């Protein structure tokens, strides 16, 4: 390392440790009475410097016995002996060292600069802190699990590595009033994250920012303004969640982000009396709906046991039951339900579909023939003939109720009629001796 | 205060002279088990102390981890290394010194931990080891004192108070001396644990008497 002219030695940004009373320890550098050993002092002690800067240090020997000189002293830095040409005897008791174009510190506890006696024994030491000031933290992103807490992540400034220990502090305050608060639970979802567990207000914006500090200075991020209500996410949607697929991390969440819930619990699937082509699905609204005061729409999907193709029933509005129709008799079906909250606290915004509920299975009754298509919940892309017929029937019934004063008309009534039709069809078949295949048998029955 | 007399085997119908011999005999297996247990603890903690020392030197940076590194052996207030004459003392006297050293170590280890929390704030494992070391030294010291009390060899004089953290703190003027002091304390911790293990082993070999 070439010797250079004396460069600026930055003042250490670290305050000296508080002096503790009744110190009894002999400090390295302080003369030890009667010890007979040379001791020395290095100056400056523990300087903080910018990468690329220069340092001029001195090692001054306090001789005991008198006469100890700087001759024969040498320097090491992190255990490596420094070239003699970097050193110079200033006077009888002082050896100087000139270092130029310093590299970043090798360890965060500081580079160890040591002054040695001729025999190699250590006379004094000083720790150098060489690095960069912190850059402005960026990409702050925050989310809430339950509208009571807040977790934030950020990215250190552009260069990241400062070679010095850099402390990050997440601060927050209510936008229009209140004092600055400091987050206390760090590293919850990664090295640059913090969690605020409670005492957060809703319906009012917070200002959030990150301050980075090290021995060479500090930097502050831009301020992120958000309302806790707008950054609620289910656990599966949070950054860092193992199976999260719907987040676009990195990137902060814009204001007004949609909300989701857990899937509907307690999904039950059961037969509808003797109807061999229908199953009834019932579920419970997610409990979170009660807290959040919003409505929900639902979606149902179902498949045959040994199939991978799901059929989806869309737009099951704010109800907690549905009847699947047009199913195959004597078949096991798996059914799932999911929920989309909307209208949170009165807004009209749609939310994000929840995860599907755990599959629930049920089987349709066995029958000789499959039932006709159609039902209260129409399968999307299912039997084409049942879909439009059912839709038209619904419209007709709706019209009848309005114009023909048939207030008792409903799909339930229609289904009851269908069940009756099937029963009477069975009975007729038995009377006429019609076999399950539909062929006529030899049994005698009343002529048609 | 000496140890209770070891009961002698009766010879030609002779009864043991110590009237409390019967109760001493019944206590011996229990004491032996306690000594064995404490010895095992000391052995385990000596291993931990080695690991602590290795982790410590690694985090201070070279030359601390180099074999050639030979810092001055700074005296630490309230605690010195085992003297060369230690091995020549009676075992109960050695154990008293061991217990005293183990009682003096926790505040010193706390000081080192606090300083390392400033110098190496991300070194969670080192900080945890230092915290554990203080707790373990306290536990082993208490176990040794309990043994000494059971053996009737506890120190009857006024107990020397272990130096407080403020009195013995190595709040050196600089970071380098603080690093050296931490190394010294970790080294003393290892030395005294090793010494305690050895002394307990000798006690185990020789029996409670």
UniProtKB/TrEMBL annotation, chain A:
One of its GO terms (biological process) is cell surface receptor signaling pathway via STAT. Keywords: Disulfide bond, Glycoprotein, Immunoglobulin domain, Phosphoprotein, Receptor, Repeat, Secreted, Signal. CDD domains: FN3. Residues 358-389, 425-448 are annotated as: Disordered. Residues 1-36 form the signal peptide. One of its GO terms (cellular component) is external side of plasma membrane. Gene3D superfamilies: Immunoglobulins. InterPro entries: FN3_dom (IPR003961), FN3_sf (IPR036116), Growth/epo_recpt_lig-bind (IPR015152), Ig-like_dom_sf (IPR036179), Ig-like_fold (IPR013783), Type-I_Cytokine_Rcpt (IPR050379). PROSITE patterns: FN3 (PS50853). It comes from the Eukaryota. Residues 136-231, 263-367 form the Fibronectin type-III domain. GO terms for molecular function: cytokine binding; cytokine receptor activity. It is found in: Secreted. Belongs to the type I cytokine receptor family. Type 3 subfamily. This is Cytokine receptor-like factor 1. It comes from Theropithecus gelada. The gene is CRLF1.
TrEMBL record, chain B:
Its main location: secreted. Residues 1-24 are annotated as: Disordered. It comes from the Eukaryota. GO terms for cellular component: extracellular space. One of its GO terms (molecular function) is cytokine activity. Keywords: Cytokine, Secreted. It is found in: Secreted. InterPro entries: 4_helix_cytokine-like_core, PRF/CT. GO terms for biological process: cell surface receptor signaling pathway; nervous system development. Belongs to the IL-6 superfamily. Induces cardiac myocyte hypertrophy in vitro. Binds to and activates the ILST/gp130 receptor. This is Cardiotrophin-1. It comes from Theropithecus gelada (Gelada baboon). The gene is LOC112614151.
